[in-house]
Design brief:
Elements: H1 16-43, H2 54-66, H3 70-73, H4 96-105, H5 121-142
Length: about 140
């Protein structure tokens, strides 16, 4: 039985100046893409939609209790097995976005498991609002 051999199509003919232009164009495109990606990462400073809304903080407290957060973080988030979430002693700067992402996705290498399947984004933001309110109360009490 004869076997058919498929020949690859030859590459299109290019003039040397076209190849040089294509390399320059590719380099410029890559540079712009990297610049844009860096700007996009820097621009993703997500803000808590609830700010310090006291109703959202009260709902966040209810979620804190119902989700069992106190088992690790203690009553009023002051720490137990897990860290205190109301003080200023954090390994990473505690932006609202970082706290939200930690609750949603967990923290690798720790006992902090993700809650993305247990709570909606809105509920996680309410929990962040509660933690921020507890932090505010603690700071006001220290003054």
């Amino acid at each position: 039985m004869a076997s058919a051999t498929l020949a690859a199509a030859p590459p299109p003919m290019q003039r040397p100046e076209d190849a040089k232009m294509n390399k320059s164009t590719r380099s410029a495109a890559l540079g712009l893409a990297l610049l844009g990606a860096g700007a996009a990462c820097h621009a993703q400073n997500v803000k808590n939609p609830f700010g310090l809304d006291l109703e959202a903080a009260a709902e966040g407290k209810r979620l804190y209790d119902s989700q069992g957060c106190m088992a690790c973080h203690g009553n009023n988030a002051r720490g137990a097995v897990g860290p205190d979430l109301t003080d200023d002693e954090w390994l990473r700067a505690p932006s609202d976005e970082m706290i939200f992402n930690t609750i949603k996705n967990g923290r690798a290498g720790t006992l902090m498991s993700p809650f993305r399947d247990a709570m909606s984004d809105e509920q996680i933001w309410q929990l962040v609002t509660y933690l921020r309110d507890e932090h505010r109360k603690r700071r006001e009490g220290a003054q």
